[in-house]
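Let's study a protein:

___
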Amino acid sequence: MIQQSQADMIHLDVMDGCFVPNISFGFPVIEAVAKNFNKPLDVHLMVVNPDQWVSRLRDIGAHFVSVHVEACNHLHRSLQHIRDCGMKAGVAINPHTPIHCIENVIDLTDLVVLMSVNPGFGGQKFIPATMKKLKDLNQLRQNCGASFQIEIDGGVDLQNARELISCGADILVAGNTIFKSGNPQQTITQLKQINA
């Protein structure tokens, strides 16, 4: 269904039960997805020590790899490693983390993932304060003349998608909104039409 839909990419949340209190899936599933889809893979590592998985994700064919600022002792090195492996480097920021913490790595950042829920569980409600954070991040992007994309992850639905896009979001992750829909393909089309 996703392969035939208008979805631009597939977002894969990898959880280890340590950085977040849930476990999702590992490399056998990522490899299976990569073999059966021709859409780009957007891999979101919600794990401790994400650096150890970067080369393997390159070998699988991931397009984007995002690591959490809160999980990286050496964020600059982590982002550089992702880029050196030929992938787009993303940095994810939890709801409580201020955006100024990424100012010194903007030149290595292709994607900023604003968590609009606390990471680790699907189906959570969108945190309204994300809107201000999104506006501030978009302003930072403009002020720096940067070209990173802004991705919103968590609680995205047909009610808030338009405002998110108007505030500067480029990519919307909409898991439950799509997969709990009675007609997932139609829901994807509706989300895509908002951005048209």
In short: The mean pLDDT is 94. The longest helix spans residues 130-144. The longest strand covers residues 10-15.
